[in-house]
Every structure is written in structure tokens, then in C-alpha cells.
Automatic annotation (TrEMBL):
GO terms for molecular function: ATP binding; ATP hydrolysis activity. The keyword Kinase does not apply. This is ATPase AAA-type core domain-containing protein. InterPro entries: ATPase_AAA_core (IPR003959), ClpA_ClpB (IPR050130), P-loop_NTPase (IPR027417). The lineage of its organism: Bacteria, Bacillati, Actinomycetota, Actinomycetes, Mycobacteriales. It comes from Rhodococcus wratislaviensis NBRC 100605.
Length: 90
């Protein structure tokens, strides 16, 4: 994924493994991030707590998401940016 994005932003085109090229000259590319995901999760926890429902994220679930839910080239870390995994809240 990173190589495709680099081609797109650097060259304005993407070439696949068979040598076919797609030109992005007249294209608008919208990039998004999950930078606000911790705010969404906190809001969800507050709404659930108001209904006496808890949300616990187990270490096994965090490990699964780290393995299956992320591309390795983008890394996995906490919202604190220190590389640690945030603790589950109840």
C-alpha cells in the first residue's frame, strides 16, 4: 500500500505488476486517517456507561487487531505515541 501511495504522490501515476499504468493527472485523491479514533472510542464508552454497559478490550483482542487489523508498514502504537498498548477500560 505504501508503494502505491508513493507512486501516486510522487509520479502522479501508478503502475501495476503487469506494467499497466494509470494516470492520476485530473484526479482528486482524498486521504483520511484514524487520528480521532480514540475520541470516538471514548464517546462510545461514555454512552455505554450511561446505560450501565462496560466495554473491555482484552489483550488477546488487542493482539488480534495488531496482527490482522493493521498494515505493518504503518506500525501499531498507542494514542500516547510511545509504542505502548493502552490498557483496557471498563
Amino acid at each position: 500500500m505504501f508503494n502505491i501511495l508513493l507512486q501516486l504522490l510522487d509520479d502522479g501515476r501508478v503502475t501495476d505488476a503487469q506494467g499497466r499504468t494509470v494516470d492520476f493527472e485530473n484526479t482528486i485523491v482524498i486521504l483520511t486517517s484514524n487520528i480521532g479514533s480514540d475520541l470516538i472510542l471514548d464517546g462510545t464508552r461514555r454512552l455505554l456507561k450511561a446505560q450501565d454497559i462496560g466495554l473491555d478490550v482484552t489483550t488477546a483482542a488487542e493482539d488480534y487487531l495488531a496482527e490482522e487489523g493493521y498494515e505493518p508498514e504503518f506500525g501499531v502504537g498507542s494514542a500516547a505515541g510511545d509504542g505502548s498498548t493502552p490498557p483496557a477500560e471498563g
